[in-house]
Amino acid sequence: MGGWYVLGIVIVSLLSLAAIAVYLPRLFVRAVFRPMLALLYRKRVIGVENLPTSGGYLVVSNHVSWIDGIVILWMMPRNVRFVVDGSNFGSGFAKWLAAAFDTILMLANPKSIMRALKAAREALKSGDVVGLFPEGTITRTGQLQAFKPGMGKILQGHDAPVVPVYLDGMWGSIFSFSGGKFFFKWPDKFRRRLTLYIGKPLPNDTPIELVRSQVNQLHARAQTDHRDEFPVLAAAVIRSWRHRGKRLQIADSMGTELGGREALTRAFALRRVLRREVLSKDETNVGVFLPPSAGAVIVNVALALDRRVSANLNYTVSSPVINHCIDDIGIRHVLTSDRFLSKVNIEIDSDIVTAETLREKVTAADKAIAFVQANLIPAALLRRMLGLHRVKSDDLMTVIFTSGSTGMPKGVMLSQANISHNVDAIKKAIRLNDDDVVLGILPFFHSFGYSVTLWAAQVLGPCGVYHFNPLDARQIGKLAEKYGATVLLGTPTFLRSYIRRIKPEQFKTLNTCIVGAEKMPADLFDAFENTFGIRPVEGYGTTELSPLVSVNIPPSRSPAAFQIDRVEGSVGRPLPGVCAKVVSQESGDELPAGEDGMLLIAGPNVMTGYANQKELTEKAIRSGWYTTGDIANIDAQGFIHITGRQSRFSKIGGEMVPHLKVEEEISKSIHHPASTEQCGAAANDEENALMVCVTAVPDSKKGERLVVLHRHLEKQVDEILADLKAAGLPNLFIPSRDSFFEVDQIPLLGTGKLDLKGAKDLALQLTGSA
After folding, report:
1. Where is the Phospholipid/glycerol acyltransferase domain (predicted)?
2. For the residues of 480-519, what is the DSSP string, one character each?
3. CA-to-CA distance for 463 and 437, rounded, in angstroms?
4. Could you report the per-residue pLDDT of 485-526, keeping only the tens digit for each?
């Protein structure tokens, strides 16, 4: 009797569920999916108070995974009628599931698209919540892609607001494109934390690109809030070098070659010797005075393993400047080598510790313990033994000094999260792997060299090959050929030198070339591709931003589907987690697509601040936004176009005159290919030497007047002025004839950048305005 009773209850229950599934499908699906999602994910909603309490509105979200819609439905208080690609809902179950939530299906034909847009408009008018993924496809890199115009068509004819949202946490799941594929992979974490950020409602006539900006700002906020999830790089390099095993991990032009575990053993041994023989327990900041090399990599990693702050010092500046940097952050010891010191004319007012001295202090016990640490102790236990589990995301990792183009260098304090975010962003966008070989020709005192050619190259799997002189084209060509280099990071100036001096077969394995620091001349794209069969792409960054902000995705690395991911002439879209906006210099309001203004950046890459300069830090960073000093515009696709620097504009007769534009036209007139923003390290190369610099001095009538500093020109000034007029430059942009001054050399910094202060001081002296 009891068995029949239980069976009856089961049958009634199943019939009830079936009835609910037929007549109340939404209730049924929620009852099934909610506990399932709660088992797999932890959810959090931020900004729910921003949702309108009544009426219809359009929810606009990023798109990272196949189940974004289901997850957002789980998190939102009201049902959301998503407009989705109907081709993904062809099966009976999928159609039933879509119908359960009144999903609006749209197929790739004009009639279906029009029906879907009309249904969405009617839903908003009737007070429903409509959802849209305006990117039109799932991101392949974690970057927010361009928004399709369909959003504007849905909003026509009524006043329903737009609510921007950002779903954070799905990247890395099996439903995202992390790892270069969907589904067939292990998720990188279990019961991951998902956070839905809900922004304030926007008027429905807000331009699409500004709606996209609001979604991206939520993205930057999410990444900043969750910066504790970025890996501790010292722990990550242990895993990476162990994984590499005996395979080549580090090589340099001095003949050093180290496998992964050998490099790790050396780093642990150095850490022990430094703790015992050199560094006191309370000594935090340690100077490093070495060129890009295997030794410099080992030193920086050893300091990170010991939870010290490395400060790679600029060996191209004068002794007073370098000693100012040392005093500024209280460096007691500087790690270098006798061999390197003998080649530079620098006097350091601090305790110098050379590699040769340290090598003599390494004992057999140091080597044995380092071997055990590098090879035998489980990584999790080793992490605790080294205290790496106590490293916080906001702990300082390095101090990088600015180039000092406008005065004495400033110490930029970069945290663990700052550098780790850059490494993570490179992993998503550029997808470095175990088969890559990165040419490390950028100095580690430069933030690009430190973050990318040091940490990204050593943590993400590639082998790093280092050389101390980026203009030594012949040696770089030999290294590229010997080790099969695949990735080159440099500047346009370097590329011109390589075109002339490196044989095409030496770069035959190269598949990725990213340039920055200078504006890439249009002719150089073709010239490099014609020579080496690979087209360079541009990126952008500043020391204060760790340094990477944006990059065009190289063709060889592009996983793009239905969206462009590079625009030549731009510096790319912001990297994952980074948000860019352009604001009016007068009002501070965000500008629409294509309009020039001040470029601001937010995200986990924004520096901690300038060392010992609180007021300057507060001026540079306001409400989380770093003011770059660059004039730019962002196009409708989200790509950044740099058009000048604020410090390189003059206000003449009430109008802003860009120095760079005038320089470019003068360079065209004299038929000199070198950009005036070129790295001055090429100053020893007459063919690439900086020829022209435009600066300004005070003027009693118009506020300022342009001054042109130039080396010897074959063309007469009158002919140049005629060319400027023929090019259509406004009269205010054309310098007077008596404003041209021939000089022996354009003022340059030791790093090779234009010395803006030096150029201005020289102009003041030559014009008698000083």
Report:
1. 57-170
2. HHHHT--EEEE-HHHHHHHHHHS-GGGGTT--EEEE-SS-
3. 5
4. 999 998 887 888 899 999 999 999 999 999 987 778 888 899
Q: Name all domains of the chain by residue range, CATH numbers in brackets.
A: 44-225 (3.40.1130.10), 233-561+604-622 (3.40.50.12780), 655-767 (3.30.300.30)
- Residue 629 φ then ψ, to 5°: 85, 0
Two structure tokens written together for 275: 């703790």
Task: List the structure tokens of 518.
Answer: 């200078």
Q: Which residue has the higher pLDDT, 646 or 664?
A: 664
Return the percentage of the chain with pLDDT > 70, whole number: 89
Q: What residues form DSSP beta bridges with 673?
A: none
Tokens of 356: 């040769």
Kindly report the pTM of this predicted structure.
0.84
User: Rounded to whole angstroms, how far apart are CA atoms 622 and 588?
Assistant: 12
Q: Which residues of 723-734 are buried (b: 16+ CB within 10 A; e: fewer)?
A: bbeeeebeeebb
Residue 678 has pLDDT above 50, yes or no: no
- β-pairing, 309-312 vs 487-490, is unpaired
Closest CA to 63 of 179, 170, 198, 153: 170
* Per-residue pLDDT, 659: 85
The partner residues of 311 in beta bridges, in order of sequence, read 287
Order of all β-strands in the sheet with 41-46: 41-46, 192-198, 162-168, 57-61, 129-132, 80-85, 104-106
- Lookup result for tokens 């575990």: 261
d(CA 428, CA 559): 11
Peptide bond into 547 cis (omega under 30): yes
The mean per-residue pLDDT over the stretch 302-317 comes to 94
Residue 5: CB atoms within 10 A of its CB come to 9
Q: Is 344 helix (H, G, I), strand (E, B) or coil?
A: coil
Say which DSSP state 552 is in.
Answer: P
d(CA 589, CA 582): 8
